[in-house]
Amino acid sequence: MSMRTLPLLFLNLGGEMLYILDQRLRAQNIPGDKAHKVMNDIISTMFNQKFMDELFKPQELYSKKALRTVYDRLAHASIMRLNQASMDKLYDLMTMAFKYQVFLCPRPKDVLLVTLNHLDAIKGLIQDSPTILHQVDKTFRQLTDIYGGLSAGEFQLIRQTLLIFFQDLHIRVSIFLKDKVQNSSGRFVLPVSGPVPWGTEVPGLIRTFNNKGKEVKRTEFKHGGSYVAAPKEGSLELYGDRVLKLGTNMYSVNRPVETHMSAASKNLASQTQESIVPNPLAKEELNLLARLIGGMEIQKPSGPEPGFRLNLFTTDEEEEQAALTRPEELSYEVINIQATQDQQTNQELVRIMGEFEITDQSRQSSSKGDDWLAMMDEL
C-alpha cells in the first residue's frame, strides 16, 4: 500500500464531484449567483491550505465510509443541501468515474496527469475569485513538487493501491453504458485501440537477441488492435498540454446520468459488508479523520440568503425510490462520532467532532430547503 495515494484519490474524486454538481446546478436552473457561490464555497473549502497540508502528509487511505464522510462534509460547505439518496448517487458517480480513469491510464504515472486535468477544469469553474484560483495553483505546485520526481515503481504502487480501494465496486452508470465502455455487470471494457503509453512502441514486432546483445531476428505478428504511437508526453507545467483526456469534464454536454447497482454488486455487498463498511470508530482512523476534518474550514452562511436543495435525480419520486431500494450495506450514512466517550480525547478532537456531528433528524428531513441553515448550525 502506498502512503502517497490519499491526495490523488481525494483531488480526483473531488474534481468529479464538482463536475457533477456544476451539471446539476445548470440542469435545475439554479440562479447564477447562487450556483457561483456554491461552487466557489466548495472549491475554497476543498483547497484550504490547512486542509491541504494535512492531506499531503504520508498516510494510509481511509475506509470507503470514512472518505465518504469527508465528501459529505465538503458537499455541504455552502448554501446547498443534498439528502441521503442524492449524496449516495453523487458518491457512486464520483467513484466509478475515477475508477474508470485509473483503469484506462496508459502508464501508472498518468494518474498524475489525470489529477492535473481535474485541477485545470476546476479552475474553469471558479467565478471572479483570484484568491481561490491561487489556492488551486498552490495545490498544483504541491502536487508537481511531491509527485513529479517519483519513479515508475512508486506510481505503480499508487495505482495498485487505488485499484484495491475500488475493488468490487461495479455500479452501472448510464453515460458509460451508452458509450459502450461498461457492460451490464458494471465492469469496464478496456479498449484495444488508441495511443500506446509514452516511451513504448506499437505492438506487432518481436526482436530476438543473442547472448552478446546483438539483434539477430525480427518477427512480426498481428495484435488484433488498432494502436498508434503516443504523439508526445503530457506536460506537468501549470498551463501545459496534458495530452491525456482522462479526467476532463464528461458532463460539459448536458445529458442525464443514472446509476444502477448490478446484481453481482448487490450479492457481493452482503458477503463483504465488513470490508465495505468497516468500523468507523477504529481509534487510528478516527484520529486521522478528525485531523483531516479539523483542517477543513467550513464557512457558515451569514445573512438572510436562503439555502436550496439540489436533486441528483430527475424527479423527487426517483430520489425517494432510490433511497428505498439501495442496499443498506452500500448506503454510506454520515458517521456520528461520540468523542466524549474517550476520557483521553483532547479538547481539539472534541471540538472537531462536535462540529462534525449531524443528527438523524436533520439528515432525514423531507423539507425542500427551509431547514438548510438549521442543519448547517448543527455541523
TrEMBL record:
It holds the Pfam family Oscp1. One of its GO terms (cellular component) is cytoplasm. InterPro entries: OSCP1 (IPR019332). This is Protein OSCP1.
